[in-house]
Amino acid sequence: MAFTYDLSTDIGKCRLRAADAVSGAYAFEDAEWSFFLSEAGTVPKAVGMALRALLVDAARRERSYSVPGVDYDDKGRVAAIKAALATLGEGSPTLTISGPATMPFDSAYRNPITGI
Q1: pLDDT value at 25 more than 70
Q2: Among 6, 38, 51, 64, which is disulfide-ready with 12 (CB 3.0 to 4.6 Å)?
């Protein structure tokens, strides 16, 4: 698999923004960065996609346990990735759902069949 780190390329810029620039310990192959770039269209959005992919993987693998003499907790990884997304401005999209409010003069509005 390929790893390149050249800041004159979009892949290199993605690697820099996502701190994925160490050749021996990188998270994504060049082909994966190319996919993120083609899907997202811009470097910042591609980095957001990549971090969300890491977030899903971290959440899926999240573990915490304790046995005599050993405490293991990697739940901080999910929080760290969420913080990175927020810092880069690529957090989860916000969804607002609103519905019509009941009117005090319209009793049939609450239950149109019985009027209660």
Answers
A1: yes
A2: 6
